[in-house]
Each structure stands twice: as C-alpha cells, then as structure tokens.
C-alpha cells in the first residue's frame, strides 16, 4: 500500500522560551546555537533530509532573526566574496524562493494552537511537525527514520522514547500496545500525566507525522495541561480511528529548551568535531581531573 508522501514540515517557533531566560528575552530560543549552528537549522536540515520540500514556520513577535537566517545576507555575502572567504557555511542555508512559508501565531496559546495556525498551508495532506528545541542526532535523522516507518504503516506516527519514571509528568506519555521492532502501537497518549498516573515511561519527543484530520479537531480546541491548547489532546482523538504508532528513534535526543540539555548538546557535538574536538576534549579532561 502506498500512502500520501510527507512533503510539508511545520516548525512551531512562536513559544516564549521562558525556561531559557534571559537568553531568550530578545532572541528566539530556536536561534540558540549548538556549536556553530542554530537549533532551527538542525531541524530544517532534518526535514529536508526526510524529503519534505515545504517548510512552514509558525512564528510570533520577536522572531525576525529566524526569517533572516534563511534569507540572503547581501552585506555578508558581498564582504566575504570580496575577501575571498569560503561561502560554504552560508550558501546552503538559503532556501528556494517562496520558502519557508511563515504564518503567525498571535498569542502563544499552546503547541496545538500553533500547529492549527498552519492549517491553510497544510491543507488536506499528511504533514510533519518538528520542535526545533529538541535536537535529534542520528544517521539517518529522526524524521527520515519516521518517514521510512510511515511508508510501511501510514497514519499517525509520534516519537516514543524512554524517560526516567520520575520525569513522566513533564511530557506527553504513551500507553503502549503491540510492539514491532521500533514501532509501538499507541493505545492512548496523555499530556503531562499527574505523578503516579503515567501508564508507561514512553514519552513523545518533538517529532510527529500527522494526518490532516487533526486540524479539524483543533478547530474546536480544548484547554489542556498547563492551561494550553495541547497537540497531544487533539492527536489522542485520532487513536482508534486511524493507525497510530510510536517510533523509537535510533539516535540521541538533547532537550535544548532546557539549559542543562543545551550545554550537554554543545559538549557532545563539540567533542565529535574534527576541528575543535581535540581542544575541547583536552580542556574537559583537565576540568574534570
Ligand atoms: P515549549 O513547551 O518548549 O514552550 O514549546 P516555550 O514557550 O517555547 O518554552 P518555555 O517552556 O517557556 O521555556 C515547544 C515548541 O512549541 C512552540 C515553541 O516555540 C517550541 O518550539 N510553541 C509553544 C509555539 O509555537 N506556540 C505556543 O503557543 C507554544
């Protein structure tokens, strides 16, 4: 059976990033860098690798730097060319004319509301959602692995990663059904279950492949955990009506919306780099000795 391909990737980037203040007061959280690349670029590259050709940002006030990052920077390019510097690091970022598409979430009412703001662009197609503050490192990337699984089972797919049982109240938690390799049937998904009520320790990191019907559900939103319109609550209504699976990623996840996770990502990726790895390793070894 063939399923409609996943061409559209939605990046909700309208959140306030309060856990990362003061860095995020005047700068979008998604522009925080891991080594030398902003989080949003890692996520966009992951979506392009997975075959998505329409990039959709759901932005808000103060997010202009995100738009500029994917645009032409005439002064920079002209100066670099004049000085004979390599353009390799900036040329690849620029997207094709007309992309990304930007839609606006006027108020940060929650992830479900942010995704719904992209409904006119998504239309009647299955689509991916990537939360850029969750940095996924793997070969191939997380979304590509999910798309490969989607091509076999169709329907809705969400990430399914184990967390410490004490942490389940921070995430969307899956009630698992049958397991088949990296795929787990999803029987239920609950956003931030109160302590002691989680049905598993399988959380949903920020990667989703969703059917367009979720937008119809979000037309009539309900306020969920944290007083926000939760994507999890809307997705949960598709369970039982459409195929719904969790996908366990073969790779590493860094929660870069959290300060400790972001520092860990920088350290891990810096140590792997040929150019700066040795210097960072030497320093880290001395620091820990
Ligand atoms: P987070 O839960 O990390 O929220 O959102 P946040 O507001 O960005 O950060 P904190 O918790 O205050 O530190 C997950 C993703 O959903 C987007 C965020 O931009 C982030 O990429 N989001 C969240 C929206 O686009 N709109 C919202 O209303 C909420």
Write the layout of secondary structure elements.
Elements: E1 8-12, E2 33-34, E3 37-38, H1 39-49, E4 54-59, H2 64-69, H3 74-82, H4 88-91, E5 101-104, H5 111-116, H6 119-122, E6 127-130, E7 134-137, H7 142-153, E8 156-159, E9 161-162, E10 172-180, E11 183-191, E12 202-203, E13 207-210, H8 213-218, H9 231-236, E14 244-247, E15 252-255, H10 259-272, H11 277-288
Parallel strand pairs: 1-4, 1-6, 4-5, 8-14
Antiparallel strand pairs: 2-3, 6-13, 7-15, 8-13, 9-12, 10-11, 11-14
Helix pairs in contact: 10-11
Bound molecules: uridine 5'-triphosphate (UTP).
Name the features.
two-stranded antiparallel sheet; 2 domains; Spore Coat Polysaccharide Biosynthesis Protein SpsA, Chain A; alpha/beta; 289 residues; binds uridine 5'-triphosphate
Please report which band the strand proportion falls in: under 5%, 5-15%, 15-25%, 25-35%, 35-45% or over 45%. 15-25%
In the CATH hierarchy, what is the class of the largest domain?
A: Alpha Beta
Reported by name, the CATH topology of the largest domain is: Spore Coat Polysaccharide Biosynthesis Protein SpsA, Chain A
- Category from helices, strands and their pairing: alpha/beta
Count of DSSP H/I helices: 11
Strand order across the largest sheet = 5-4-1-6-13-8-14-11-10
């Amino acid at each position: 059976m063939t399923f409609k391909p996943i061409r559209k990737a939605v990046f909700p980037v309208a959140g306030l990033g309060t856990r990362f203040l003061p860095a995020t007061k005047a700068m979008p959280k998604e522009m925080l860098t891991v080594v030398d690349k902003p989080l949003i670029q890692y996520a966009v590259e992951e979506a392009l690798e997975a075959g998505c050709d329409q990039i959709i940002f759901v932005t808000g006030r103060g997010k202009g730097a995100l738009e500029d990052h994917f645009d032409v920077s005439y002064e920079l390019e002209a100066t670099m060319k004049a000085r004979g510097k390599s353009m390799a690091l900036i040329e690849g970022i620029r997207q094709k004319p007309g992309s990304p598409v930007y839609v606006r979430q006027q108020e940060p009412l929650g992830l479900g509301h942010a995704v719904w703001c992209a409904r006119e662009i998504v239309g009647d197609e299955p689509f991916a959602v990537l939360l850029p503050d969750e940095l996924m490192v793997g070969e191939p990337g997380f979304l590509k692995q999910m798309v490969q699984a989607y091509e076999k089972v169709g329907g809705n797919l969400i990430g399914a990663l184990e967390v410490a049982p004490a942490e389940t109240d921070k995430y969307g938690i899956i009630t698992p059904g049958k397991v088949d390799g990296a795929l787990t049937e999803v029987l239920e998904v609950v956003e931030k279950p109160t302590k002691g009520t989680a049905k598993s320790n399988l959380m949903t990191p920020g990667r989703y492949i969703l059917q367009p019907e979720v937008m119809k559900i979000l037309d009539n939103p309900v306020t969920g955990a944290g007083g926000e319109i939760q994507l999890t609550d809307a997705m949960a209504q598709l369970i039982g009506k459409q195929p719904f699976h969790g996908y366990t990623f073969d790779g590493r996840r860094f929660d870069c919306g959290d300060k400790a996770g972001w520092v860990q990502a920088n350290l891990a990726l810096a140590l792997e780099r040929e150019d700066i790895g040795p210097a960072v390793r030497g320093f880290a070894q001395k620091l820990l000795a």
